[in-house]
Amino acid sequence: MAQLTMVQAINLALRQEMERDDRVVVLGEDVGRDGGVFRVTEGLLERFGAERLIDTPLAESAIVGAAIGMAAYGLRPVAEIQFMGFIYAAVDQLFAHAARLRSRSRGRYTCPLVVRTPYGGGIKAPELHEESTEAFFCHMPGIKVVVPSGPYSAKGLLTAAIRDPDPVLFLEPTRLYRMMREEVPEDDYTLPLGQARVVREGTAVTVIAWGGMLERVLKAVVPYDADVIDLLTLNPFDGATVLASVRKTGRAVIVHEAAKTGGFGAEIAATIAEEGILHLRGPVLRVAAPDVTMPLPKMEEHYLPGVEQITRTIDEVLRY
Amino acid sequence: MPEEVLATFTVRRLSILNESGDADEGLMPPLSDAEIRRMHELMVLARTFDERALTLQREGRLGTYPPILGQEAAQVGSALALHPADWVFPSFREMGVHLTLGYPIHLLFQYWAGDGRGLRTPENLTIFPICVSVGTHIPHAVGAAMAARYRRDPVAVCCFFGDGATSKGDFHEGFNLAGVFRLPVVFICQNNQWAISVPLQRQTAAATLAQKAVAYGFEGVQVDGNDVFAVHRAAREALDKARSGGGPTFIECLTYRMADHTTADDAARYRPQEEVETWRGRDPILRLERFMTQRGLWSEEYARETKEAATKAVDEGVRTMEASPPPAPEELFDHTGATLTPRQAAQRKEP
Ligand SMILES: Cc1ncc(C[n+]2csc(CCOP(=O)(O)OP(=O)(O)O)c2C)c(N)n1
Ligand SMILES: [Mg+2]
């Protein structure tokens, strides 16, 4: 087994799925000759040719829109949006079409489409290159939202996403692209969408995170008896795993790097309130970014939740 | 250094059949008498369907409906050029296309009566569901054309939309992609000169819509949209070209929306009645009938039979639509995804 970065793991997943299934094609800006601005698709053009590694014009709505047409025709397109901050132009296509094609055609047409995009902060990049607006996309029935937290989960989840019969938004935490290496099997494996992973077991508090925040959570919880849940799929999220843990610990802290108001933490907190409140010993607390625009690099560490903020919040809930 | 002219362009307009019913024989597409009668019968069917839809709406048996009156030639003429394996991406005002391709009448009524089951295209047809979000289906057609080419399928993709759609970003992004990759796609604009209350001059400062294709590197042509022969010829040539690897074409059918935008609209608020009257004289069915009279293809008896057959088909469609039981509440969860999420499964059980 090889020690791979997340970039390499995603590249391997794409390569293997393209080998396995000639319906899989990749399209986006600079994905071909350049191998993607993060080199995620490096070498794929040489291997699969320009018909399957399609460098498109700079047009996000058409990238996703054309991918919808390809998917309905019978292909399995993987569209790349270069950064999440540029996906907004394609939201119309995702919400008004990808999410509802199966439903509005009453099952006649389906949309087995993956939209991959780097997301999240902490990479000292220009404006709109560090967005983390995953919660918007979780409010639209019909689209799955998946967030890996390392190389192993990235390969297993992306493979599952490509094989999924419905549209999947696949958010790649940019900060983790090359931060860590993990054992990633060459062999074919998938991680089921909609299933969270208990990363660490404990009894005093449940800490729930995903994507780039998981790494900080794991640093923060070292001195605590904490259950840590890596959500992996945000929509549909694995409420059963969250509730089982909260029933055990009686305390929950949710950590996300997106702004607090309307963030996905709210959905988790509401679910705990609805279905697990009698097991709680204290309030469900959220560690999130403030409700401000994602700042430029000089301020980004003031914006992103840090290890210290996470430990402070765990301390707070442990007082109950 | 002198200035140079780097590009010049021309925009062609095709018309074959004039208002008196005289056709330019040199430009006539090859059509047998039977095919000409078929064109006429389908245009009469489209108009009969439309008339009935308005009546049903007034009686509360249909929801909001967008009439196609005046656009029958642009729809029937183009749809008759399609092959069975071609893919069609309609907007919401192309019932003449659906009827020509054999989309079941009761399903069209069912959809406009507010029942989503009417949007399920039967397996023998490759028509995408009606697109309500103006112009946003243009990239889908382009993507399907990319897929068709990748699959080496000898098919064309045909996308219909209105003049209002030409202002949308998706029109421009989709056209650009089609041009860059020389895709097998034909774009057909029903330029009925109005987008609800906004006239064409407020939609664009360009002299024609057809010329917009030029900027994307492929041909655009304007045709007299009330001339079924011109529409048919242009569509046939463009579709053949697409199927044989010649790339995309944009056809602007210049026509007119004779009725209100929808049954919820009152066009008298924003456009002069004289304009409508001028266009009444250019009625596409009347024009074809004059031609058929000259050709000896029209008689009182034929006309009566044609109308009766159309009425019968439409009656049958209404009956079938109204005989189908309403959807059951659990069907709300059908087709949201291949499988229900745990929460959807729980919600489905809730009273
Ligand atoms: C994206 C979008 N914006 C607004 C509307 C509301 N709307 C429905 S039809 C229409 C006008 C469309 O004009 P056109 O494209 O010329 O088609 P026509 O109605 O004339 O057939 C508008 C504004 C819509 N359906 N979709
Ligand atoms: Mg119009």
Describe this structure in words.
The complex is a heterodimer of chains A (320) and B (351). Chain A has 320 residues and is α/β, with parallel strands linked by helices. Chain A has 2 domains: 2-184, 3-Layer(aba) Sandwich (Rossmann fold); 197-318, Rossmann fold (3-Layer(aba) Sandwich), CATH 3.40.50. Chain A is 35% helix and 20% strand. Chain A is built from 12 helices and 14 strands. In chain A, strand 6, helix 7 (151-163) and strand 7 form a beta-alpha-beta unit. In chain A, helix 1 (6-20) runs parallel beside helix 7 (151-163), helix 8 (212-220) crosses helix 12 and helix 9 crosses helix 10. The longest helix of chain A has 15 residues, at 6-20. Chain B has one domain (13-349): Thiamin diphosphate (ThDP)-binding fold, Pyr/PP domains (Rossmann fold, 3-Layer(aba) Sandwich). In chain B, helix 1 packs across helix 3 and helix 5 packs parallel to helix 6. With 351 residues, chain B is of the alpha/beta class. Chain B has helices at 33-58, 72-79, 95-101, 105-112, 138-150, 169-180, 212-215, 228-243, 273-280, 284-295, 300-323, 342-349; strands at 12-14, 87-89, 157-162, 185-191, 194-195, 198-199, 219-224, 249-254. The mean pLDDT of chain B is 97. Helices cover 42% and strands 10% of the residues of chain B. The termini of chain B are far apart. In chain B, the strands form 2 sheets. Chain B has a 6-stranded parallel β-sheet, with helices on both faces. Chain B has a two-stranded antiparallel sheet with strand order 5-6. The A-B interface holds A 25, 51-52, 54, 56-57, 59, 61-62, 64-75, 77, 89, 92-93, 96-97, 101-110, 141-142, 164-166, 194, 235-236, 239-240 and B 87, 89, 116-117, 119-121, 123, 128-129, 133, 136-148, 150-151, 169-170, 173-174, 176-177, 180, 334-338, 341-344. Bound molecules: thiamine diphosphate (TPP) and magnesium ion.
